[in-house]
C-alpha cells in the first residue's frame, strides 16, 4: 500500500506521513493510484456539496472551488502558471522555455492563466450544481489524474533529473493503460453526455501533447500540471455544453 500513500501525500494536503523515503520504483507505481486519489478528492467535493446544498448556488460553487484548490495544494495550478509564463516568454525557443519554467516567480501571464482557469471552473461548477449534476464532480479529478500516466507513457520526459524521470522509468505500462481505460469509461454513466465530455477531454490532452512536443520535444512536471488543469476544465465544459444541447 506504500505507493497509494505516496500518491495521496503528493497529490493532496492530507496529513500523510511516510515511514521511509520512497524508492524510485515505489514512486513509479504510485502513479497507478493517482486516479483513486482523484476519486477521493471528487468524493469529498461531492459530499460537501450535498451537506451544504441549502446554501445559495453561487456561494456553494465558490466553497467547492476553494476546497478543490486547497485539497490539491494548488499543485497543478502552479504548473499551469509556470507553463503559461514559459510559453509566452520563451518566444518559441526550447531552452529559454525550459529555463523560465524553473523560475519560481509568477509573471503576469501566469497570473492571468490562473484567473482565467479559476473563473471558468467556478462558472462550470456553478452550472453543475444549478442543473443538479453535482455527481459529475466525483469523476472530474479522477480523469484529471489519468493525464500523468498517459503523458508519461506516450511522451518523452525532457529533464534528466526530477520526479518525472523516476515516474517515466518505473511506471508499469500495461497496468497503467488498463487503469486509464477503466477511468475513462466512468463518465459513460451519463451516456451521450459523458461520451462527449470524454472525447473533449481526450482531444484537449492530445492537442496539448502536440504543442509540448513541438516546443520542447516532450513534457516536464509543469506541463503535466498544466494539462491536468486545462483538461479538467475542458471536461467540465463539454459536459455542461452537452447538458444544454442534448
UniProtKB/TrEMBL annotation:
Entry superkingdom: Bacteria
BP GO terms, sorted: cobalamin biosynthetic process
Transmembrane stretches, start-end: 31-52, 57-77, 109-129, 136-154, 174-190, 195-212, 224-245
Gene Ontology CC terms, in alphabetical order: plasma membrane
Pathway: Cofactor biosynthesis; adenosylcobalamin biosynthesis; adenosylcobalamin from cob(II)yrinate a,c-diamide: step 7/7
First-level EC class: transferase
InterPro entries: CobS
GO MF entries: adenosylcobinamide-GDP ribazoletransferase activity; cobalamin 5'-phosphate synthase activity
Catalytic activity: alpha-ribazole 5'-phosphate + adenosylcob(III)inamide-GDP = adenosylcob(III)alamin 5'-phosphate + GMP + H(+); alpha-ribazole + adenosylcob(III)inamide-GDP = adenosylcob(III)alamin + GMP + H(+)
Record's bilayer topology term: Multi-pass membrane protein
Keywords: Cell membrane, Cobalamin biosynthesis, Magnesium, Membrane, Transferase, Transmembrane, Transmembrane helix
Cofactor(s), by name: Mg(2+)
E.C. number: 2.7.8.26
Compartment list: Cell membrane
Function: Joins adenosylcobinamide-GDP and alpha-ribazole to generate adenosylcobalamin (Ado-cobalamin). Also synthesizes adenosylcobalamin 5'-phosphate from adenosylcobinamide-GDP and alpha-ribazole 5'-phosphate.
Family: Belongs to the CobS family.
Protein name: Adenosylcobinamide-GDP ribazoletransferase
Organism: Acinetobacter nosocomialis 28F
Gene name of the encoded protein: cobS
Amino acid at each position: 500500500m506504500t505507493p497509494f500513500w505516496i500518491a495521496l501525500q503528493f497529490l493532496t494536503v492530507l496529513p500523510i506521513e511516510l515511514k521511509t523515503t520512497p524508492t524510485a520504483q515505489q514512486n513509479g507505481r504510485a502513479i497507478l493510484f493517482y486516479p483513486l486519489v482523484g476519486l477521493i478528492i471528487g468524493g469529498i467535493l461531492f459530499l460537501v456539496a450535498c451537506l451544504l446544498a441549502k446554501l445559495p448556488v453561487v456561494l456553494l460553487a465558490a466553497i467547492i472551488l476553494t476546497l478543490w484548490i486547497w485539497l490539491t495544494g494548488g499543485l497543478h495550478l502552479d504548473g499551469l502558471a509556470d507553463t503559461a509564463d514559459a510559453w509566452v516568454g520563451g518566444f518559441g525557443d526550447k531552452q529559454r522555455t525550459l529555463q523560465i519554467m524553473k523560475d519560481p516567480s509568477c509573471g503576469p501571464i501566469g497570473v492571468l492563466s490562473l484567473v482565467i482557469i479559476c473563473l471558468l471552473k467556478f462558472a462550470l461548477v456553478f452550472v453543475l450544481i444549478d442543473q443538479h449534476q453535482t455527481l459529475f464532480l466525483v469523476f472530474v479529478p479522477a480523469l484529471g489524474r489519468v493525464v500523468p500516466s498517459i503523458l508519461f507513457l506516450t511522451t518523452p520526459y525532457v529533464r534528466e533529473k526530477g520526479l518525472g524521470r523516476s515516474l517515466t522509468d518505473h511506471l508499469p505500462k500495461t497496468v497503467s493503460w488498463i487503469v486509464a481505460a477503466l477511468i475513462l469509461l466512468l463518465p459513460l454513466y451519463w451516456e451521450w453526455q459523458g461520451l462527449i465530455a470524454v472525447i473533449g477531454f481526450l482531444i484537449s490532452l492530445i492537442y496539448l501533447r502536440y504543442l509540448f512536443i513541438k516546443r520542447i520535444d516532450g513534457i516536464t512536471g509543469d506541463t503535466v500540471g498544466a494539462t491536468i488543469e486545462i483538461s479538467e476544465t475542458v471536461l467540465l465544459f463539454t459536459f455542461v455544453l452537452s447538458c444544454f444541447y442534448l
